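Blinded run. Sample ID left blank on purpose so nobody reads anything into the name before looking at the predicted structure. Input follows.
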Amino acid sequence: METCKDWNYDKITPATITFGAAMIVLGAIGVYMMTADDAFNPLLTIFFYSIPSNCAVALFPHEPVLVKFGKTINLWHLATAASLGTIVAAIIDYQFFTPILNLSYSRKYKSHQVYKAAHKWFYKSPFLSLVVASFSPIPFYPFKLMVYASKYSFARYLIAISIGRFPRYYILGLAGYTFRIPDWIIIGTFVAMILMVYFKKIYELLNKAIVSLFTNKNKELAVEKNTGKYIDTVGD
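Blinded prediction complete.
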């Protein structure tokens, strides 16, 4: 029977900062290679792109990209390259987010409903939960949080995501190969998925900016009004 427990950290170490920096650099390389217009080997591009698209805080979706490359690349090679990139992302994530998410002042996320929902499944059967979540369309990030919060076995974590992700990547590539989906549909899906993820955040930022703008304007008007009243009173 697998067991998990939460860990606590008191401070961020230089190693944590190093892995965080590596995540940013590798993520930037992956994005650059995706936008470099066939300048690089496609398998190398898939490998590097799979890093930022599979980090705990995934910047971009991997599904449309694998469907696109599945039309032209050997599916076994495609799934292998994407899986290796995912493993690199998992290694960096584990080393960086485990201490970050277990700092005493950063543990508020554990009260979130998504975390609580995943919590009961993960702590019953962590390995099976990771395999199923990494293969299926259900959100995977809550289970990643479980791994980092409990400091679940690093080796088991890598094995679980390898078992779940490889067939997922193969099926996505197979969909591109079989249905020959036009690039414009793939690109449209890619953009739509990004908007679905970031729309709420963008809306909240814009809403806060507008509220702040009107609040400050009202304060200025109130000050001007009060100042005018004060001057009128003095004039009398």
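Unblinding after everyone has recorded impressions. The two ends are 85 Å apart (CA to CA).
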